[in-house]
Write a structure and sequence with these properties.
single chain, about 250 residues, alpha/beta, Alpha/beta knot, Trp Operon Repressor, Chain A, 2 domains, five-stranded parallel beta sheet, two-stranded antiparallel sheet, elongated, binds ligand 9D3
Length: about 250
C-alpha cells in the first residue's frame, strides 16, 4: 500500500512515522509513504499556496494550481491511485471505510489548510471526501494520520502474529473486554478470579460477557442493528430477569 500525502506542513508527519506499528510497517515494506510539499508546486518567488476568496470574506483558500501539480506528481500514470480529500464536509471516516481503503493500492491524501481548497479541485480530482468527526481541526494533517493509522493496521502482517481476531469484522462491533495485568492486587482492587483460574473456556465466556455489558453501558449506539449470538441473547435475558426482579422489589415508587 502506498500513501502519498499532500501538505504544506510536511514536518508534522515525521514523528508519526517513527513509532510502533507504523514504523514497523514501513520497515517491512507493507506501506510506502511519500510526503509531497504542496509549496514545491507553487509558482513565483514566494511560492504562494493560498489566496483570498472570490466574493470576499474572511480567511484564505488553497489555490488550485499548486494542488493540481502535487496531485499530478503523486498520481501520475497510476490508474490505481485513489484521491482522498480530508475535509470537515466529508463523510465521517469509520472502520468500514478503513476496510474499504485498505483494499486500495495507492491512496493520495490531500490535507487542506485555511478555509479549504478551491472547489474545482474537489469536483474534478477527488474520489473520496472524508472527515474524522464532528469537531473543528486546524487542517487535514491529523486526519490524514488517522486514516494512515487505521488503514495500516488492517494490512496483512501489520500487527504481527495472529491477527485474524483483530481483523475479524465481527470484532469491530463490540468494545473490548476489561483488561488486567500484574499486580494481582492494585490499591486494594483484585483482578477477577476467573482470569487467574487457567480455565480458558471460562475466561473466554467472561470476556464475551465483559465486552457485551461494556458496550451496552458505554456505547449502546454500537448495538443498533447488531445481531446477537445465541449465547449473547441468553446473557441479555439473564440481565433482563435480574433487572425486572430489582425493579419489582422497589415497591410502589410509581
Ligand atoms: C472555522 C472554519 N470553518 C468555517 C465554517 C470551516 C473549516 C475549514 C477548515 C473548519 C475546519 C477546517 C480545517 N479542518 C480540516 O481540514 C479537517 C477536519 C476537521 O476540522 N474536522 C474533522 N475532520 C477533518 S478532516 C479535515
Amino acid at each position: 500500500m502506498k500513501f502519498s500525502i499532500l501538505t504544506i506542513f510536511p514536518d508534522m508527519f515525521a514523528g508519526f512515522f517513527e513509532h510502533g506499528i507504523i514504523r514497523r510497517a514501513i520497515e517491512r515494506e507493507l506501506i510506502h509513504t511519500d510526503i509531497l510539499d504542496i509549496r514545491d508546486h507553487a509558482a513565483g518567488r514566494h511560492r504562494v499556496t493560498d489566496d483570498r476568496p472570490f466574493g470576499g470574506g474572511d480567511g484564505m483558500v488553497m489555490k488550485p494550481d499548486p494542488l493540481a501539480g502535487a496531485i499530478r506528481k503523486a498520481a501520475d500514470r497510476d490508474p490505481d491511485a485513489v484521491i482522498v480529500h480530508l475535509t470537515p464536509q466529508g463523510r465521517v471516516f469509520d472502520q468500514k471505510t478503513a476496510r474499504a481503503l485498505s483494499e486500495k493500492a495507492h491512496l493520495v491524501l490531500i490535507c487542506g489548510r485555511y478555509e479549504g481548497i478551491d472547489e474545482r479541485i474537489c469536483e474534478t480530482q477527488v474520489d473520496y471526501e472524508l472527515s474524522i468527526g464532528d469537531f473543528v481541526l486546524t487542517g487535514g494533517e491529523l486526519a490524514a494520520m488517522v486514516v494512515v493509522d487505521a488503514v495500516t493496521r488492517l494490512l496483512p502482517g501489520a500487527l504481527g502474529g495472529d491477527t485474524s481476531a483483530e481483523t475479524d469484522s465481527f470484532a469491530d462491533q463490540l468494545l473490548a473486554h476489561a483488561q488486567y495485568t500484574r499486580p494481582r492486587v492494585f490499591e486494594d482492587q483484585a483482578v477477577p478470579d476467573v482470569l487467574l483460574s487457567g480455565n480458558h473456556r471460562e475466561i473466554e465466556i467472561w470476556r464475551r460477557k465483559s465486552a457485551l455489558i461494556r458496550t451496552l453501558l458505554k456505547r449502546p449506539d454500537l448495538l443498533e442493528g447488531y445481531s446477537l449470538t445465541q449465547e449473547e441473547l441468553d446473557l441479555c435475558r439473564q440481565w433482563q430477569n435480574r433487572l425486572n426482579r430489582l425493579i419489582e422489589n422497589q415497591g410502589d415508587k410509581r
